[in-house]
Every structure is written in C-alpha cells, then in structure tokens.
Amino acid sequence: MSEMLKVAVLGAKGRMGTAAVAAIDAAPDMELVAALGRSDSLDILVERGADVVVDLTVPDSTEANVRFAVEHGIHAVVGTTGWDAARLAGLQELLAAHPGTGVLIAPNFALGSVLATHFAAKAAKYFDSVEIIELHHPRKIDAPSGTAFRTAQLVAAARAEAGVPAAPDATETELDGARGASVDGIPVHSVRLAGLVAHQEVLFGSHGEALTIRHDSFNHESFMPGVLLGVRTVGTRPGLTLGLDGYLDLEG
Ligand SMILES: NC(=O)C1=CN([C@@H]2O[C@H](COP(=O)(O)OP(=O)(O)OC[C@H]3O[C@@H](n4cnc5c(N)ncnc54)[C@H](O)[C@@H]3O)[C@@H](O)[C@H]2O)C=CC1
Ligand SMILES: O=C(O)C1=N[C@H](C(=O)O)C[C@H](O)C1
C-alpha cells in the first residue's frame, strides 16, 4: 500500500473546516494529523510531519499561514479569500526560494463553480453586456466573493483580448452602489440572504437575447471533492496554481 498523505486543516472549527476534517478523515489515502483553530501554534504542523495543509481560515490569517507552510516545505491548499495582487506577488517570491513546494489558491472548490467560471470566460467576448450577481449566506465577511472577483477578472481579460468595447450603460446619476462594485470594469452585485449558502449568476446580454450561467452550492460538502483533489495534486505541482481549473483538463 502506498503511503498515506499527512494532512492538516487550519480553521478546523469553521463551516468549511468542519466539512474538510470529515472529508479528509473519510479519505482512504489521507491521515488527518492536525485540526487547528485560531489559537493553536503553527509549529504543530511541523511536529506532526504534515505533508499538506488546508487553509480555510479568514482573509487576515491566510497569508501568514501559507507563508509558514512554504517556509517549512509543507504544500498548501488554500480556500480562504483575500489574496490580492500584492499578496500573490509576495507568495510567488517566497515560492521561488522554495522551488519544491506547491500552493493551490482556489477561490471555489465546487467543480460546478469552476466550470461555470470557465464557461463564462468562454462566453465573454460574444455579448454586448455582462454583469455578475453573487449570493451568499449573511455570515460571510467579505464582499464581493472571491469567486465573483476571479470570474470578473477572467471575463474582463477575455473581453479585452477580443477587443470587445465597454458594455452599454446610460446611467448618469446613481445612488452609491446601485450599479454594484466594478471589478476590472465588470459590475459585481453582492446579495447576503439568510438561507443561502453560495450562489452566482453571470448575466450576458446582446440585442434580443440573454444567457445566464448560474451555479449553486447548497451545502459545504459540495466543496469537498475539489478540496480532496487539491490535496492529492498539490505536491506534484510545485509553485503557485491559481484556481482549481489549473488541476483540471478543461480544454481537452
Ligand atoms: N474555496 C472555496 O471553495 C470556499 C472558500 N470559502 C472561504 O473560506 C474561508 C472560510 O470560510 P468559512 O468556513 O465559511 O468561515 P468560518 O468563519 O466558518 O471559519 C473560519 C474559521 O477559521 C478560524 N481561524 C481564523 N484565524 C485562524 C488561524 N490563524 N488559524 C486557524 N484558524 C483560524 C476561525 O476561528 C473560524 O473557526 C472564507 O474566506 C471563505 O470565503 C468558503 C467556502 C468555499
Ligand atoms: O464564504 C463563502 O461561503 C464562500 N466563499 C468563497 C468565495 O468567496 O468565493 C467560495 C464560495 O463562494 C463560498
């Protein structure tokens, strides 16, 4: 039998962390060596010989956690939001000094969401207009969601590459926020509603037609196949991978 992957979870008592602990515990090829919360020392990761750490914490904590992992040669699978361009650049630099170590930062582990974002980027150049609506549970602390942010970036890049002009919009006066946040020129609207988990619609429009690409996560188990795929793959992909699509064969 091949050796078990030693996996640690950070943020183990949170919504995602709880589901990840259960999924890793149930995986036949993984051993859960640590399930850590906010007040636990990261030294435990080294003491327990973790091969992979899964970070499901908060935007304020994730960067220090991942840097610690990389500095100690531990691969990291990161679901936490808050990785802006400056943080990513710093991490790239650190990874260059630790060339054997892999980090996956995945704004969304749900395979359907990864596909929805991929399809949206493909559709982006064919429509005059595009807007994104993301809808989440009201305990979410960041807006817009990491998924919406990345979707908007990819859609905007595809439109720019194809030379698509800005979407038509005659708005002259607006109440602050009425047209959403602008991410690379794409309007992103954030809804927080009791009863929801994680949902997103990408709305495309042209003369006489509309296309909506919608994905729904109805529970946190929906993210777990992607988390496990990340844990199994990250050690074979040194350096930084942004998005679970980097581990999938979506063009094939
Ligand atoms: N990539 C994906 O598919 C998904 C990503 N997320 C993201 O994952 C993050 C966590 O989401 P939830 O589980 O809903 O949040 P949550 O608030 O339920 O859990 C976060 C947990 O992290 C703990 N924590 C904070 N700092 C820590 C530290 N330094 N070390 C260890 N634990 C620490 C908190 O005490 C809390 O228990 C958010 O950024 C969220 O946007 C959420 C769902 C899916
Ligand atoms: O906080 C959440 O719940 C989620 N966060 C991620 C995000 O910000 O995109 C992924 C998913 O939308 C659920």
The CATH architecture classification of the largest domain is 3-Layer(aba) Sandwich
Annotated CATH topology of the largest domain: Rossmann fold
Helix % is: 25-40%
Instruction: Report the β-strand fraction as a percent range.
Output: 25-35%
Q: What spatial order of strands do you see in the largest sheet?
A: 2-1-3-4-5-11
Q: Could you tell me which ligands this complex binds, including any ions or cofactors?
A: 1,4-dihydronicotinamide adenine dinucleotide, the ligand O=C(O)C1=N[C@H](C(=O)O)C[C@H](O)C1
Q: What Rg do the Cα atoms give?
A: 19 Å
Measured between the Cα atoms of the first and last residue, the distance is 32 Å
- Contiguous low-pLDDT stretches (5 residues minimum) are none
Q: Give the assembly state of these chains.
A: single chain
**CATH-wise, what's the superfamily of the largest domain?**
NAD(P)-binding Rossmann-like Domain
Top-tier CATH class of the largest domain:
Alpha Beta
Number of discrete domains: 2
Q: SSE order, as H and E?
A: EHEHEHEHEHEHEEEEHE
Rough outline: elongated
Mean pLDDT: 97
Structural class: alpha/beta
Most strands sheet: 6 strands, parallel
